[in-house]
Amino acid sequence: MSAYNILLLGSGGRESAIAWKLRQSKYCKELFIAPGNAGTAQYGSNINLSVTDFEEVKRICLENKIDILFPGGEDALVAGIWDFFKNDADLKHIVVAGPSKEGAQLEGSKAFSKKFMQRHNIPTAAYREFTEENFDEGVEYLKHHELPIVLKADGLAAGKGVVIAQDHTEAIGTFTTMIKEAQFGDASKKVVVEAFLSGIELSVFVLSDGTNYVRLPEAKDYKRIGEGDTGPNTGGMGAISPVPFATGDFMQKVTDRIIDPTVKGLAAENITYQGFIFFGLIEVKGEPYVIEYNCRMGDPETEVVMPRLENDLVELIIAMHENRLNEVEVKHDERAACTVMLVSEGYPGSYPKGKTMSGFEGVHDSILFHAGTAIKDGHTVTNGGRVIAITSYGKNLQNALATSFENAAHIQYEGKYYRRDIGYEFM
Ligand code: AMP
Ligand code: GLY
Fold it and tell me: Are 294 and 204 in contact (CB under 8 A)?
């Protein structure tokens, strides 16, 4: 194998962890991160760019002789960056680590993913979909639906398109704003109404070459802003890996009932999919169900998955491209890993930016994955809601978490907040 020039799209903690991992590969020649953040510059060159400006992505790829394009998030994939590359004579030789626009619909359309699961008998919550056309029928349906009721905007809504209504009035109100007032724009013109599943969530990841796949370490993320899983949803406040209950029998069910039928179903329907599949699962009385699919890695899960993945990531991407993932054995680091996200005061609502950060020299035995950070006048400053992820290894979760919490105390900026209970169910 030769070495490759790689362009990674994105700027979050996930992209920091992917960049960190790519940089360790002996097959990584030059690495570019677009747009990146203050931390990603230690792994490669940051290039300022909007990830959905495909003409600009093209220009950068040609200028830097890029061999591999790695879209970190869903935006470019759902907008069809794979198709854009494969339909352009100058770009089609470039390996894209992600699915076609059609494959990305697994994340880009809740209705598409529900129908896909139905066709392939993949366990998921019972559902119905509604639009303006059958709005009245939807209201009637909601009136008699068991509580709580889950309402999902069909399209991408930056993680905000899911509402769990506790009573019928709230459900009908939400339904009305989503459809009639286009609360999430085009994304909520169609709404999926589904049964509420009660259980414990986990995230399972595979890299698929369209026929074969390898499973990466699983993880559990903590979405709510408040300790004890209270308050509004965020992009993720921390994560752990491994997940203590994701073992033997349960993972066999996940493989047989969910992963295999998904990969085979995509192939059977001729949907081009070479990339990551993120299974957002929930365990209900020992049985796994799919809550959602994503067409990319998770954030902050990647900040624990990449540290626990022992394989060379570029080697995996090339094996994916060459349909050889069946020849690859994935090795998981035996150690536990956790990540604790430091966020800005006010997040997930409005928050200030540009707060000077200090105390980095006091951090030991953790990896800092920058998320919302920037450099201003030579200083690292906050530049987002989720600021920095502190990842640690440990011989068990307790040890890993103790290290991250200790280091979380060293980093300073005005308005710093983090959850001190990541991993609490397993302590
Ligand atoms: P999603 O954007 O589909 O991942 O949904 C966001 C969050 O809403 C999930 O992580 C779950 O915590 C919750 N959720 C979604 N669907 C359901 C469901 N059917 N039952 C219970 N919780 C759900
Ligand atoms: N951690 C959930 C996500 O990346 O969508």
Answer: no
Domain that holds residue 90: 4-100
* Largest CA-CA distance found in the chain, in angstroms, rounded: 61
Q: Residues 378, 275: one domain? A: no
CATH number at residue 160: 3.30.1490.20
Atom 18 in ligand 1: residue holding the nearest Cα: 196
Rounded to whole angstroms, how far apart are CA atoms 220 and 393? 15
The secondary structure of the chain in percent helix, strand, coil, rounded to multiples of 5, reads 35, 30, 40
pTM for this predicted structure? 0.96
Q: What is the pLDDT of residue 199?
A: 95
Determine the Cα–Cα distance for residues 79 and 346; give it in Å rounded to an integer: 31
Question: Cα Rg for the chain, rounded, in angstroms?
Answer: 21
Cβ(288) to ligand 1 under 6 A? no
CATH number of domain containing 249: 3.30.470.20
- Fill in the amino acid letter for 137: E
Bridge partners for 356 per DSSP: 381
Residue 263, number of CB atoms within 10 A of its CB = 19
373 close to 384: Cβ distance less than 8 angstroms: yes
Distance 110 CA to ligand 1 centre (A): 11
- Ligand 2: list residues with CB < 6 Å: 221, 236, 294, 298-299, 301
Reading the block at residue 247, the tokens are 């073992």
* Closest-approaching ligand to the CA atom of 150: 1
∠ CA 66-71-77, rounded to 5°: 120
Each residue of 282-313: pLDDT tens digit?
999 999 999 999 999 999 999 999 999 999 99
Average pLDDT, the chain: 96
Instruction: Please identify, by atom number, the ligand 2 atom nearest to the C-alpha of residue 297.
Output: 4
- Closest atom of ligand 1 to CA, residue 124: 19
DSSP state of 390: E
Of 212, 217, 181, residue with least CA distance to 202: 217
Q: Are 186 and 288 contained in the same domain?
A: no
Do residue 173 and residue 225 come from a single domain?
Answer: no
Number of domains in the chain: 4
Atom of ligand 2 at shortest range from CA of 14: 4
Task: Verify whether ligand 1 is closer than 6 Å to residue 280 (CB atom).
Answer: yes
Q: Tens of pLDDT along 369-403?
A: 999 999 999 999 999 999 999 999 999 999 999 99
